[in-house]
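tool=predict chain=A
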Amino acid sequence: MGLYQLHRRFKPIGALAFLLVLLQVAAKPATLQAPSVASHQNWERLVTEAQQDVQAGRLPAAEKKLSEALQLAKSFPPDDRRRVKTLRQLAGVYHSEGKDALAWPLLQEELTINQRTYGPADLHVAASLDALAGVFSSLGNYSEAETLYRKALGIKEQLLTPNHPSIVRTVESLAAVEAEAGKYSEAEQLYQQAIQSEIQFFGPLHPGIAVPMDDLAALEMEQAKYDSAESLYEKALKIREQVYGPSHPRVANSLENLAELYVTEGHYGKAEPLLEKALAVRQKSLGDNQPEVGTTLGRLALLYADEGKYSQAEATARQALGLRQKVLPADDPAIAESLNNLAFIYTKMGRDAKAEPLYRQSLEIMEKQNGKDTPLFAATLNNLGLIYARQGKDDQAQPLFEEALKILRAALGPGRPEVATTLTNLAESFAHVHQDARAEQLLRQALRIDVAALGSQHPAVATDYHNLANSYAKEGKDAQAKALYKQALAIQEKALGPQHEDMAATLRDYAALQKKDSSTQLKSPH
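tool=predict ok
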């Protein structure tokens, strides 16, 4: 698969839940003195307008109004609930804007106020701990996030009945943090605990059960436990179909999750009907002009490209881009993603002149909106580097690959398939300038990563064998090259079928090596 397709990241609930939710408190309303009536009315107006801005997606406007409201709230008594409410909502806007460094001090202040008002063991305090933990998780401070979630969990277990939904939400968030920190065993146990609690509280067919099932399945995918992931995704799909019916958007979500698993395994034939069904469900339930439809179209376009169905891939990617351009602002990150996907398809088709301006346009949008440190920005750098490498401009390609590697390792970790893909591209660029030993070293790294992350029978591993075989053949290591070509062909025939273009390319290079050996033998004296 192309680098643009990234595994799910585990997101704690606490970091996302507070944006549009008004803080529910049991405190008595503040008594307003005459001089403060005007301040209260201005505060109330700003908060109401900010909520409307948030719902309309106008986050900068909401930030400005909530900042003004917070300044007004500072004139109220120190522990006034209006101040707490403003802190929470402004922190939520900062989080949605990716400004978590600004969000956490506000949530820390909210926590301090709630501890003073209610004492250390109160549900208001637990809610503040959840929100603060979620932001620390987004900042990558998993140790602090874990500590805060465990404090929140302890309070809830003390005050609520066993298996209460609020307890389950914190358990799920804690599991997500453990997964992000690489503590997979602990995360698995927590997700299983959440699933069992949901079943005991709601019964076996409640839609809430499907959420931790999806998260646990994603964790299993991270560890290449594909059979377990498939079973969990299928159970979640069955629950949603029974609860919502076959034509609900949440059913489409489950179909896409299962399709993503099959794509990760290289089972493209299984993934295609699921994505096509998900697209039909979204179009029927939402209409043709919703952003979610564009997302599914984009995934389907990339799958078509991986199957070698380039005319379908191009048409579907264009449809996804056109839809998003119609319904979203011109600089929305989703448009950058669609531009990148279409450019990638053109790259696979060898139409670099069409791909390059799309990549550059995509990079401009992404840098403006989210900076340069995101996996998608790295993916686009990688793909642009491919164009330069194909054109023989390795002095321009190599810095792009190296920057992409740096971003991906920091954002995703060093053992991800996306890292392997970029290592392979960098190796090819070194091979172009006859640095064969360096290229071989990078190709070996890529192979180790893919085998560990995807399993030994994945098509990406076959590609790694093919690339390394080409490197050996170039260095005159013919016996080693032939062994790797055979391993690649065995995987490709089973996973992709004998007619796939990847298998044809491997056969072509293997045949060229055999022909060279035959020619050498004929020229040798007897």
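The chain has 23 helices and no strands. The two ends are 48 Å apart (CA to CA).
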